[in-house]
Amino acid sequence: MIIVRQGRVAPNIGSPVSEQSNPGSLAASVKDLTSKQSEKIADLAENTGESVEKYIRKRPLTTALIAFGGGFVVSMLLRNNKHKR
Predict the structure, then answer these.
(1) CA-CA distance, 68 to 76, in Å (whole number)?
(2) Would the pLDDT of 68 be above 50?
(3) By the 8 A CB rule, do 42 and 50 touch?
(4) Does the predicted model carry a pTM greater than 0.85?
(5) CA-CA distance, 7 to 16, in Å (whole number)?
(6) For residue 15, what is the DSSP state?
(7) What is the mean pLDDT of residues 43-66?
(8) Counted domains in the chain
(9) Which residue has the higher pLDDT, 40 or 80?
(10) Residue 85 resides in a domain
(11) Is residue 9, in this structure, part of any structural domain at all?
(12) How far, in Å, CA of 82 to CA of 85, rounded?
């Protein structure tokens, strides 16, 4: 990847590249890239949500026990330890 700034000549082309040195063009490129990445992340989140939903439907008891165990661990970590005084 070649980054051209301030009207410098890109190697092996022989002419100044003004599109890449234009801040508006760069901003549009960044906007397109972030838009594509956000779409990929949204798709990944949707697929992950569907996978979790399938797991919950397939194993409801296991899921409930995992949720209970996680809640128990968090409550033990966050509780006031008054017995230490």
Answers:
(1) 12
(2) yes
(3) no
(4) no
(5) 6
(6) S
(7) 94
(8) 1
(9) 40
(10) no
(11) yes
(12) 6
